[in-house]
């Protein structure tokens, strides 16, 4: 079996460009004892991948130059030399950015077919777990909370919004562009939506949508969004700091937030979190999302690019605002 893969050739300076990457074709060996061979069906694009392209110290090692990158993927076992897997099994792995692979069986996890394969990269995968853990545990969602979500039309943000709504909360989302604003209002049925690109002041826009203030902020963006949340937060509000995508490609420090003293005067809780440190909640999470999905309370927004050749285009879509929901690449 032959497989194409995408490799990182140099560390990007600012926004990645095509010369930072290369495509290669390799021969996959037959699986040895305790190994499986997998053909990937879908791979996911996550903002955290940008961090691994640099050498900055983080919670996961950087991508190695000259080697295939990694990322969440779902695939089908095509050959197995391990008793726990058989051809046709649906599996999840972190071996995306390639059409297929041969690897030790402990590098893949079996998934049931009661959900579409790509769901395990979205609301039923690490994306969903990130939303679940951040909202229910880091932000400690309580009855009566008003919730503000940045990047609310994205993969994580859209799941956060839906969990908060199905639990009966007032939810306000921010996203860029009229199309995304309509999605938040018409599809996710949020109580308020802000097109931050159309607002001269994000703080004033949030004050308009949440005149009684906010109690929970789920931060995917940082910068001006975090500044607005600090300004409008009620006393003792809780912030789940998930990501700061506004800064990932920046070569200069962010000018915002400029009002961090509000965290002191309002006695706020700002809690950063990494979903990988909460895998003990995976079983409870999967049980909940399966039940919510079966009841029609949880849906999935996806932007799907066809073929590995468009994987870099899909990655760019995380940052240029062109995508809606989870960014996926359909490989097979």
Please describe what this structure looks like.
The protein has two domains: 2-122 and 300-330, Quinone Oxidoreductase, Chain A, domain 1, CATH 3.90.180; 126-276, 3-Layer(aba) Sandwich (Rossmann fold), CATH 3.40.50. The chain is built from nine helices and 16 strands. Helix content is 26%, strand content 27%. Helix 5 (202-209) packs across helix 6. The chain starts with a strand and ends with a strand. The chain is α/β, with parallel strands linked by helices. The mean pLDDT is 95. InterPro entries: ADH-like_C, ADH_N_2, ER, GroES-like_sf, MDR_fam, NAD(P)-bd_dom_sf. Residues 14-329 form the Enoyl reductase (ER) domain. This is NADP-dependent oxidoreductase. The chain crosses the membrane at residues 119-140.
SSE string, helices as H and strands as E: EEEHEEEEEHEHEHEHEHEHEHEHE
CATH T-level topology of the largest domain: Quinone Oxidoreductase, Chain A, domain 1
Count of domain modules: 2
Segments where pLDDT lies below 50 for 5+ residues? none
Bin the strand percentage. 25-35%
User: Helicity level, as a percent range?
Assistant: 25-40%
| Total DSSP E strands | 16
Q: How much is the radius of gyration in Å?
A: 20 Å
Largest sheet: 7 strands, mixed
The CATH level-2 architecture of the largest domain is identified as Alpha-Beta Complex
Helix/strand structural class = alpha/beta
Please give the count of helices.
9
**CATH homologous superfamily caption of the largest domain:** Medium-chain alcohol dehydrogenases, catalytic domain
Q: End-to-end distance, in Å?
A: 14 Å
Mean pLDDT: 95
| Name of the level-1 CATH class of the largest domain | Alpha Beta
Which term fits the overall shape? Answer: globular
Organism: Sphingomonas crocodyli
Protein name: NADP-dependent oxidoreductase
Keywords: Membrane, Oxidoreductase, Transmembrane, Transmembrane helix
Transmembrane segments: 119-140
């Amino acid at each position: 079996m032959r497989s194409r893969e995408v490799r990182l050739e140099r560390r990007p300076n600012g926004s990645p460009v095509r010369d930072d990457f290369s495509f290669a074709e390799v021969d996959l060996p037959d699986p040895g004892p305790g190994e499986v061979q997998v053909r990937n069906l879908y791979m996911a694009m996550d903002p955290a991948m940008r961090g691994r392209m640099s050498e900055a110290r983080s919670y996961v090692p950087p991508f190695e130059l000259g080697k295939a990158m990694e990322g969440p993927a779902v695939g089908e076992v095509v050959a197995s030399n391990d008793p726990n897997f058989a051809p046709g099994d649906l599996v999840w792995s972190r071996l995306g950015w390639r059409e297929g692979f041969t690897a030790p069986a402990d590098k893949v996890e079996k998934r049931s077919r009661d959900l579409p394969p790509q769901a395990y990269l979205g609301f039923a995968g690490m994306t969903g777990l990130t939303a679940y853990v951040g909202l229910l545990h880091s932000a400690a969602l309580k009855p009566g909370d008003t919730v503000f979500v940045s990047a609310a039309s994205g993969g994580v943000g859209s799941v956060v919004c839906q969990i908060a709504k199905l639990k009966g909360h007032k939810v306000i989302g921010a996203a860029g562009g009229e199309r995304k604003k309509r999605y938040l209002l018409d599809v996710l049925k949020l109580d308020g939506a802000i097109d931050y690109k159309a607002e001269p002041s994000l703080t004033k826009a949030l004050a308009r949508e949440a005149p009684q203030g906010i109690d929970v902020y789920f931060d995917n963006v940082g910068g001006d969004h975090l500044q607005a949340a600090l300004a409008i937060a009620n006393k003792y509000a809780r912030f789940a700091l998930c990501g700061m995508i506004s800064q990932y490609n920046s070569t200069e420090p962010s000018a915002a937030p400029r009002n961090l003293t509000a965290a002191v005067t309002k006695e706020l809780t700002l809690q950063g979190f990494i979903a990988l440190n909460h895998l003990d909640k995976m079983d409870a999470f999967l049980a909940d999302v399966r039940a919510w999905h079966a009841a029609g309370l949880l849906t999935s927004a996806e932007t799907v690019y066809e073929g590995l050749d468009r994987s870099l285009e899909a990655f760019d879509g995380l940052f240029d605002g062109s995508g809606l929901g989870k960014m996926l690449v359909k490989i097979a």
